[in-house]
Amino acid sequence: MKPTATAAALTAVFLLTAAAPIDAPVWAAGPTRTAVFAGGCFWSIEYAMEKQPGVLKAVSGYAGGDRPNPTYRSHQGHLEAVEVAYDPRKTSYARLVHAFFRNIDPTDAGGQICDRGHSYTTAIFVTTEAERQAAVAAKAEVERVLGKPVATRILRGSPFWPAEAYHQDFARKNPAQYERYRKGCGRDRALKAVWGAAYRS
Predict the structure, then answer these.
(1) pTM (2 decimals)?
(2) DSSP state of 135
(3) Residue 114 is a catalytic residue
(4) pLDDT digits (tens, 9 = 90+) for 110-143
(5) Model confidence over 143-178: pLDDT tens digits?
(6) Longest Cα pair distance anywhere in the chain, in angstroms?
(7) Would you say the C-alpha torsion 10, 12, 15, 16 has a positive or negative sign?
(8) Which of 41, 84, 134, 138 is labelled catalytic?
């Protein structure tokens, strides 16, 4: 389990709905698009996805549940998720899905590494048919490469709720604490066992 911290008050909470156009300029003017992934600890997925070419920003939060205004201490039904804003001129949705899969254990149906339970299970939230097709194709490829069933679900896009301010950019702002968590969890060791040379921390 991740260490707890005193929550900083959010100055604003916004809701992104599946009805919003996929090319809506959420983070900046221009052709910015968004993608939402749940991959266990949102600190780790945020850290991994922000390093991908073409990614402008990654935000930790909650998705997939019915409860409005979820918090870290009360997000039953939701998954820890990350909303990725990206420039489609520099990357593609399919490339982001590829990168996401290689930063999780997609065969684990009960959580991720040391973080167990529903909120740490993996999913790709899709909002268009093109995204669904890309996710389905990527999932099939992963099953072929690993030779095992993939537990990661492909779910219809749902409202995304940003997490508390102290969770945002946690690895960058708290490198020593994050590194202790990552090593203690055994994340890199576990993912190397799954992906071999294809895994890059």
Answers:
(1) 0.83
(2) H
(3) no
(4) 999 999 999 999 999 999 999 999 999 999 999 9
(5) 999 999 999 999 999 999 999 999 999 999 999 999
(6) 46
(7) negative
(8) 41
